[in-house]
Amino acid sequence: MTSFPELVFAADVADNARKIAHRYFRSALEVDDKEDHSPVTVADREIEAYLRSRIAETFPEHGIFGEEQDPVNMSAREVWVVDPIDGTKSFVTGHPLFGNLMALLRDGEPVLGQIDMPAFNERWQGMRGAPTTFNGTPCTASGCTELSKARAYTTDPELYTGADRAAYEALHRSVHLLRFGGDCYNYGLLASGHCDIVLEIGQQPYDYLPVVQVVEGAGGVITDWSGRPLGLDSKGDVLASATPELHEQMLKALAPCLAGA
């Protein structure tokens, strides 16, 4: 994908972000709680500071939207979205399922996406106009078209509370196999054909925008629970599916839940 300089750049900075993550992973870390009670560490802050400095140096006209610092130049036509460590709860408990996420938005739409898994040395990259790759080799979603045969993931069923619990129940009763945990890793697994559906709730833009092109470039579909494209202003309830047929079936299963919300 050398014809896409932004993708080459994303891979380069992820290589160095991995080194920072490796330095702190499974070490004695002080963990702070943010206002939303989610954890943050020096590793989160250092990786994001590094990513921001490289973006500002290489693409000074671009905006930046990240998890740990205030947005920069959000009126720019092109905006980078970064999550230094997706899955900080995994990171601070020594679990390897944490990732580094990057997206590039152009006119508000994600045109580049990257999922990097430092503990595994695994990386998915997606760019509009090109196939998604896993460690440099093109990959494709499973092709599953029947909801009753689908293998699904959601990170945490306890996040589905109140009226939203019906969405989890719809997923649970509709699919063949349901597993938990994984955070951003689940979208990479979908892009490589290992699972067929990912349903998440209450995500932030830096959680979901970096995975859009990864999913779509592998032949999958990703939207909010109503079937709308994902953007900076989306609610953050995300559905990703291996095929359009599967996506439509899951949207229909979710529709009564949305009507009752």
From TrEMBL:
GO terms for biological process: L-histidine biosynthetic process. Pathway: Amino-acid biosynthesis; L-histidine biosynthesis; L-histidine from 5-phospho-alpha-D-ribose 1-diphosphate: step 8/9. It is an enzyme of class 3 (hydrolase). Its EC number is 3.1.3.15. InterPro entries: His_9_proposed, Inositol_monoP_metal-BS, Inositol_monoP_superfamily, Inositol_monophosphatase-like. It comes from the Bacteria. Keywords: Amino-acid biosynthesis, Histidine biosynthesis, Hydrolase, Magnesium, Metal-binding. GO terms for molecular function: histidinol-phosphatase activity; metal ion binding. Gene3D superfamilies: 3.40.190.80, Fructose-1,6-Bisphosphatase, subunit A, domain 1. Mg(2+) binds at E67, D83, I85, D86, D207. Coiled coil: none annotated. SUPFAM superfamilies: Carbohydrate phosphatase (SSF56655). Its cofactor is Mg(2+). Pfam families: Inositol_P. It catalyses: L-histidinol phosphate + H2O = L-histidinol + phosphate. Belongs to the inositol monophosphatase superfamily. This is Histidinol-phosphatase.
